[in-house]
Amino acid sequence: MHKYRTHNCGEMRRENVGEEVRLSGWVHRVRDHGGIIFVDLRDGYGITQVVIDPEREFHENLEHWRLESVLCFTGKVVSRSPETVNPKLATGEIELEAWEMQVLNDCQVLPFSVAVEDECDENLRLQYRFLDLRRSGMHQRVLLRSKVIRSVRRILEDDLGFTEFQTPILANSSPEGARDYLVPSRLHPGKFYALPQAPQIFKQLLMVSGFDRYFQIAPCFRDEDARADRSPGEFYQIDLEMAFASQEDVFSAVEYLFTTLFPEFTEKNISKAPFQRITYHDAMLRYGTDKPDLRIPIEIQDVSELFADSDFNAFRQVVEKGGVVRAIPVKGIADRPRSFFDNLIEFTRQHGGKGLAYLIWNQEGVKSPIAKFFTENTLEELRCRGDLQAGDVMFFVADQEHRAAALAGEVRRHLGEILDLCDTQRFDFCWIVDYPMFELNHQTGEIEFSHNPFSLPQGGMEALNQDDPLQVKGFQYDLVCNGVELSSGAVRNHRPDIMFKAFSIAGYEQQEVEEKFGGLLRAFRFGAPPHGGIAPGLERIVMLLAECRNIREVTAFPLNQNAEDRLLGAPSTVSEKQLKELHLKLNLPKKGKEQKARKEAQ
RNA sequence: GGGGGCGUAGCUCAACUUGGUUAGAGCGCCGGCCUGUCACGCCGGAGGUUGCGGGUUCGAGUCCCGUCGCUCCCGCCA
Fold first, then answer.
1. Does A235 score more than 60 pLDDT?
2. Nucleotide nearest to A596 (CA to C1')
3. What ipTM was assigned to the predicted interfaces of this complex?
């Protein structure tokens, strides 16, 4: 008989009755009746009930039935009588009648319960992550992540002809984008590697190398502050790149990927390919964001000209100063109490808005403190534009365009949430396309790249030469699902001449570009195929499928919000010798948090 | 770097609004009882510098200030 187990804790059924077996696992729960004892033994596959007859005395030198100890039982599989069958367990028709037990590993008193998944302090969970990962929820999510990766590989390789590559982790610092994680070089004093923020340049080089379709489950490292959906440190992208590909080619590959992948893991309704395409401009107007949740059945509208003619001075003046008025029509909430509307006004103030006006249509007509500022015709025009009738409401915000759009978007999203307007049984995908190539930095007044400097400008060289830079669009796109930005991508600019031109508009001298992107430029002078790609975020996909809002819930060993690993103690100080080998001297700050760090270092 | 929320037993929470006797409950832990439970049940017990420091007050878990920690958001993240 195997030293630890002949079966796992999830597999035995009625057919196994009569067999002599051995099971190992964790003590999930114990019901000690003084005489007979029941132990729920759990492993990675399930739970089996072990029964210990009072006449068996093997357990008597065991001091406690300490939960989460690892035990090994040997005995006979017996069938449960009909009234003792447990339908909640897959193995509930049988149980193991044990005649021998071995303690493989004892367990101390637990800091939190494994069997009962009560919420508990996340820091504590991270400190005892191995226990947290035993809990069913985390356990299943980590397994889900693994299965998603497996499916992605299968779909990309078998169905779409992609090839998986690996690219360096010790890469070089990228001048654009987020802060880098740096690794000092021992052999080259004063020089540093940088962990890749994404394998962007490497995958483009692979395209130039003649590999047709690249993918990688790629670790990405960015030294940026955390958010609920953004890990500090590292995260993973399903990094894709395709040679001789147009934007549409990338779209159809990704649409195939998602419409094949998602049904493997969810019963919910998934957008059919082709996914809706929304221009960046339209998205900002209709949804007030470039990552709209299309499940919310509200579309924002511009009504600036109707307010320009009104007597509603506060908003009219905003329009006269070049601002806009955006309307948010909402059905069926006219009978909400005053407090509902007051709370919304408070919400807009908290999000930087000056105010929120509204019109309420009910049986008697229009009810609102601002109704008197409008003619009958204007009120009717507003009602028609929102397709409204009695019982409906229209909200208004006014500000400079980008602020009004963002605020209206926040109000729309908030209404979707508090009115519970999202159909949770849907995954609504869309593409956001036609991002502007450049944007104005309002602080410096200078033109900057608005997204990726490697994107191909629509209209190519001609557009860069002739058009207003702020009007030039890029072959740059985002994939969005239920308000989550899943992915950014672009058709790349593979022509050095167009690259120099684009960079010069953003204020870079040719020589500077040459210095920063010398390797890529060299490649582009030796026969680069047109290419494009995208990189969906793995964790966000798993978060959508697992219905959780925090990236740490789908990551086995995440750093906490302060980018610390509280289980193993990263980051940590290093020895003088290590620093010396790397030609480093510390120059630590004197105050606050860092002072503590210095204390620890001593 | 800035703003919001939270911090009470090992864990989850109550007491806070309106300051007032000995800070309670469930789970866990310790002891006892229990032969068919499956969130087993029953009896008893231990366990607290209310994150830390200061202030107001006759009196502070509760009010005020500071600080630390966690978390969410803004900045930041092509």
1. yes
2. B68
3. 0.90
